Amino acid sequence: MVEGTWIPQGAGARGRRRVDASVVMGVVFGLPGFVSSLVVVGLVAGLIWATGWVVWVVMGVWVLSGAVTFVPSVESLLARLMFDMRPPTTVELSKLRPLWQSVCVAARVDSSRYTLWVEQSKELNAFAAGGRTLAVTRRALELPPRALEAILAHELGHHLAGHSRASLLAWWYELPAQGAIWLVTTAMRVVLAVGKAVSRFGTAAAALAVALLSLVLLAGLIALNPWLLLMPLLSPLLAWSRRLGEYRADATAAGFGYGPDLVNVLSGWLAAEHAVRRPLRVRALASHPATADRIRRLRAGR
After folding, report:
1. Which of 137, 219, 229, 274 is 20 to 30 A from residue 203's alpha carbon, by CA?
2. What's this model's pTM, rounded to 2 decimal places?
3. pLDDT confidence of 80, banded at 50, 70, 90?
4. Residue 13: pLDDT above 90?
5. Is residue 98 part of a domain?
6. How many domains does the chain have?
């Protein structure tokens, strides 16, 4: 046990699914990306089908397409594509499953609703994805049982609060906009490369034409994704909402009875960080709070 006073969390939230403020803020801050994607889908549909009602149908189908992420097989496929994951081996599952079941018993949730994975990473990490996916790294499997249970309880907290589902939906709905950004930025690189060659060997008029074309492409990129204009303002707010989500997952794990174990795990991480103070910009854009702040909140019962 680490030194300090431990204030236990209430057990009333066990097994209860409640969307918290961090999810609401994530949805609000993700609206520009969603609208940008909707514009892209509408433009592409308009190029393929000139009929107006067909374009609206395609856009409506795309809006409803987010429901496919709720399908277990689709979620598993997306998890494999987004992360380097694999099913646990028999030996790994024999260690992981009993610990996960203990966490779910403490949380009063059905452990069979979730799928366990192992991430192909040597880092100490675990994460929740979608509505059912929970993964740990190979190094995390080397932790003592109670420490690993505490980390699993934290990830279950993300699931119960809706963090992982909201993140997957945000990723899904930003795909068209991200694809458009990739196409336009690739075109801009080509145009700029041509412009560089023209400026050396071509005429001034040709160089001016290339510069104007670059500005047109840039304007098109901003029109397709106004998120780019809002990013300097919204990125710190989005990072803040994610930090609130981490605090919420910590508090949920503490409510399941893993508070002291989670403090022990975080204390080990804090010692490994060598107390290096991060610059203000890094802290503002960090998706995870400072480890010392997480420990302080857990000890205070917040």
Report:
1. 219
2. 0.80
3. confident
4. no
5. yes
6. 1
Residue 292 belongs to domain spanning: 21-174+228-300
| Closest residue by Cα to residue 164 from 114, 106, 223 | 114
Q: Transcribe the chain into DSSP letters.
A: --SS---PPPSTTTT-----HHHHHHHHHHHHHHHHHHHHHHHHHHHH---HHHHHHHHHHHHHGGGGGGSHHHHHHHHHHHS-EEPPPHHHHHHHHHHHHHHHHHHT--GGGSEEEEES-SS--EEEETTTEEEEETTGGGS-HHHHHHHHHHHHHHHHHTHHHHHHHHHHHTHHHHHHHHHHHHHHHHHHHHHHHHHHHS-HHHHHHHHHHHHHHHHHHHHH-THHHHHHHHHHHHHHHHHHHHHHHHHHHIIIIIHHHHHHHHHHHHHHTTTPPPPHHHHHH-SS--HHHHHHHHHHT-
Per-residue pLDDT tens digits for 259-289 = 999 999 999 888 776 656 667 667 777 888 8
Residue 222 in any domain: the answer is: no
Question: Can you tell me the distance from the alpha carbon of 128 to that of 139, in angstroms, rounded to the nearest whole number?
Answer: 17
Residues 6+ away with beta carbon under 8 Å from 31: none
Contacts of 244 (CB under 8 A, 6+ apart): 20, 21, 22, 25
Higher pLDDT, 35 or 4: 35
Backbone angles phi, psi at 245, to 5 degrees: -65, -35
Residue 218 lies in a domain: no
* pLDDT band at residue 130 under the 50/70/90 scheme: confident
Q: Is residue 203 part of a domain?
A: no
